[in-house]
Amino acid sequence: MATPLLFNAFVMNTTSHIHHGQWRRPDAHQREFNDVNTWINLAKLLEEARFDGMFFADVTGLYGDADAPYDVYVKEGLQIPSNDPTVLLSALAVNTKHLGLALTSNVMQSHPFHFARQVSTLDHISNGRVAWNIVTGMQDNGARNFGLPRLVDHDERYAWADEYVDVTYKLWEGSWEEDALKQDTSGDHADPAKIHKIHHVGQRYSVEGPHLPSPSPQRTPVLYQAGSSEAGLRFAAKHAEATFIIAPSPEIARQQIEKTRALAVEFGREPGDIKFFQGLSFVVAETEEEARAKAEEYFEYVSSDGYAAHAALVDPDGRVYPPETKLKDVQTNSARGFAEWLSKHITDRESLVADLARQRAQQGTIVGTPEQIADALEVWQAAGVDGINVINWVIPGSFEEFADQILPTLRERGLAKREYEEGPLRQKLFGAPRLNERHPAAAYRGAFSEAGATA
Ligand SMILES: Cc1cc2nc3c(=O)[nH]c(=O)nc-3n(C[C@H](O)[C@H](O)[C@H](O)COP(=O)(O)O)c2cc1C
């Protein structure tokens, strides 16, 4: 029997996350993103369908040049307005029992002492179902919202993240010993000898501790990451338990996965310590013809401006290039990359900005019958992918269709599980609620106790 794949819903508390323009469809309830019930109902639907997780992306500001007009983002609903997933997760936690709940938080946006406390609280509220997508930012405007002149240099962002996670690991893993909380009504509430200050002093942070919450079911949340550069891959190899990829083909996914797993081994971890989730969209129907016709309907709603703006194809004044612009006439770094990418697909004419949008909507979309979709997922799994991040066209319709029309066929083939395992998210994914001893955070267990300090 096949190994079941893992499934996350890849969402954001906003209107236009990945597939731009779809919010204009009559069945697009992502327009109701401000209503908490949109997300509670979706979380319940996902749990009913035995999804592993609901994963929330997030940003700290606007895309594009920080000094340029931002009209296009506002007009497209492109990640503005957007709400804070960390706050939203507590509402989802009390309305679900098994679903993993992943939040994205940038190392720049929150002091690690405060952030570690928020996450521990969420892990208590959810009985151990929280995951953290560690991001370092891509937006100058996002950096300016936190007092920086612009985004710090790329590799320096990862050095920052290294220190940031270090502080959180010390608080989550090292500050409280397991049995420190006693609540002995005839004696002490907790044992001071088992609660430790961490005395972190580093380049950016100085944190004395102790951690204020007592240990939560997972202590450290499940750690997600999505870097793709050299520094990003090294960071993932060292810290991540799950990595998000959007590879253009299973073969490229295989290369990326093998490279990251080999690097993880260099960091003293095992290849299976990291799970890989590929982002994909689906259009399903009973026949292939129907599925193709349905896909065409989605593609008609594609917003060229939305995809171009998300891909940073904007002129120096912040205006998106019109759809009919030839990519060779667009002088940005990202345009050069996209032109090269599109030249593999469009060989009989010059590629246009409009082609980019359509290609981005099509690539990474599997169109077909449930059987054809299951066949395609088997190919991704054979390339080393452990799970799929399901990217929606509409909320909740895309997830309803996945649950009702695709999952039954996947289950018949053993490609999707029928029931949840008990226990915290990490237990469900890896068989144990706490980080394994090969992870760098494990080094802080007992490190601040008297015995640890003199060891
Ligand atoms: C599937 C996926 C999801 C991502 N989600 C976010 C996000 O929610 N917020 C964010 O700031 N960056 C997000 N990123 C960007 C990554 O964190 C990272 O900055 C980007 O992939 C570039 O990698 P690099 O920093 O190693 O060059 C995401 C990337 C991918 C591939």
Written description of the protein model:
The protein is α/β, with parallel strands linked by helices and 455 residues long. It has 2 domains: 366 residues, Luciferase-like domain (TIM Barrel, Alpha-Beta Barrel), CATH 3.20.20.30; 83 residues, no CATH class. It contains 16 helices and 11 strands. The strands form 2 sheets. Strands 1-2-3-4-7-8-9-11 form an 8-stranded parallel beta barrel, surrounded by 7 helices. It has a two-stranded antiparallel sheet with strand order 5-6. The longest helix is centred in the middle third of the chain and has 21 residues. The chain starts with 5 loop residues before the first strand and ends with a helix. The model has no long low-confidence stretch (mean pLDDT 95). The structure holds flavin mononucleotide. The site of flavin mononucleotide has 17 residues, from strand 3. It holds the Pfam family Bac_luciferase. GO terms for molecular function: monooxygenase activity; oxidoreductase activity, acting on paired donors, with incorporation or reduction of molecular oxygen. It comes from Galactobacter valiniphilus. Keywords: Flavoprotein, FMN, Monooxygenase, Oxidoreductase.
Write the layout of secondary structure elements.
Layout: E1 6-12, H1 36-48, E2 53-57, H2 71-76, H3 85-93, E3 100-106, H4 112-125, E4 130-135, H5 140-144, H6 154-174, E5 200-201, E6 206-207, E7 222-225, H7 230-239, E8 242-245, H8 250-266, E9 275-284, H9 288-300, H10 304-310, H11 333-343, H12 353-362, E10 365-368, H13 370-382, E11 387-391, H14 397-412, H15 425-430, H16 450-454
Parallel strand pairs: 1-2, 1-11, 2-3, 3-4, 4-7, 7-8, 8-9, 9-10, 9-11
Antiparallel strand pairs: 5-6
The protein binds flavin mononucleotide (FMN).
